[in-house]
Amino acid sequence: MNDDRWGDVIGKIEADFEVEKHEFEELAEVPNGKREIVIFVSPIGQIKMVRTTKPRLMDTKTQYSNRIGSDTAVENVYSEDEFVNVLDIYKWDDIEVDWVRAEFDI
Predict the structure, then answer these.
(1) What's the whole-model pTM score?
(2) Cα 28 to Cα 33, 50, 62, distances in angstroms
(3) 61 - beta bridge partners?
(4) What φ, ψ does residue 30 adopt, rounded to 5°?
(5) Could you tell me the CA-to-CA distances from 25 to 3, 11, 44, 53, 86 in Å, in that order?
(6) pLDDT value at position 95?
(7) Which long-range contacts (CB under 8 A, 24 or more apart) does 10-15 make?
(8) How far is CA 96 from CA 2, 4, 91, 99, in A?
(9) Residue range 53-80, pLDDT digits in tens
(10) pLDDT(105) > 80
(11) For a tag on the chain, would you pick the N or C end, based on fewer CB atoms within 10 A?
(12) Other CB atoms closer than 10 Å to residue 97's CB: what's the count?
């Protein structure tokens, strides 16, 4: 989902439903990664939408030595201009008292 479409979805949610929380956070483990969280009340209950945007992983480099007791390090190489967007949707479950990933039959 591109940024324009995501903006349209957020606008529609804010116009039609009661938004309880809308926040942004940086991803500490990924450079230039960010997460946007929207929680709102819909006719089927509380819904949580999490959109994660991060650079595309281009390569993983493993640095190691065959010496006894040496450390192994993994270095991820990310693209500077290509980004990946992931949208996760959760529904609040009163029985489990936790967010449950929404399943859709299409």
Answers:
(1) 0.77
(2) 8, 16, 20
(3) 75
(4) -125, 125
(5) 17, 20, 27, 11, 15
(6) 85
(7) 10/38, 13/38, 13/40, 13/49
(8) 33, 35, 11, 8
(9) 999 888 888 877 777 777 788 888 888 8
(10) no
(11) C
(12) 7
Count of C-beta atoms within a 10 Å radius of residue 28: 7
Phi, psi of 70 (to 5 degrees): -80, 160
Which residue carries 């190489």 as its tokens? Answer: 77
Written as six digits, the tokens of 21 are 């929380």
Q: Are 67 and 49 in contact (CB under 8 A)?
A: no
d(CA 85, CA 92): 23
In 3D space, the residue among 40, 42, 51 whose CA is nearest the CA of residue 2 turns out to be 51
Q: Is the pLDDT of residue 104 over 80?
A: no
The residue extents of the domains of the chain are 3-101
Backbone angles phi, psi at 61, to 5 degrees: -110, 130
Distance between CA atoms of residues 83 and 66, nearest Å: 36
Q: Which two tokens stand for residue 40?
A: 């709102």
